[in-house]
Specification:
The structure is a single chain. The chain is of the alpha+beta class. It has a domain of 47 residues. It is built from five helices and ten strands, in the order αββββαββαββαββα. The strands form five sheets. It has a two-stranded antiparallel ribbon. Strand 5 and strand 6 form a beta hairpin. It is extended and about 50 Å long.
Amino acid sequence: MEWEAKTGGRRTAGVWEGVNTSNRTHKCSHCDYITANMNDLSKHISIQHSGAKPYSCTYCSYRTTRNNLLKEHINTHTGERPFACPYCSYSSSHRNILKRHIRTHTGERPYTCTLCPYRAASKTNLNSHLFMHKKKEGMLGKQAQ
């Protein structure tokens, strides 16, 4: 019992689970994912690399690899908006949309252009900005000819 309390492991059918006592890690053969638990690696491979989408919406044909994404998707059908802004009365059906909204209050701009000092609050804005660089580059190339 003392060992269990110190390590956070649990005993199931005579086997300790949830504790990596060998300090061995398991690496995915498809990507850089590494874990100490072989069950986690198996789950990762089946979800991330098999193309399987075990969670499906009861309202439409949407399918996904993760249960929390399905729950957020279902909010679009039910109208539920459980993600509330701490700065104003705005609420959203999706956590990532709320996160983007909060940046309007905080001024955070986490997306940086690699070609100039421009910073954006969303990937979409950064991609639009990068397209402007690409257009300029194309115009410069035509003028040089």
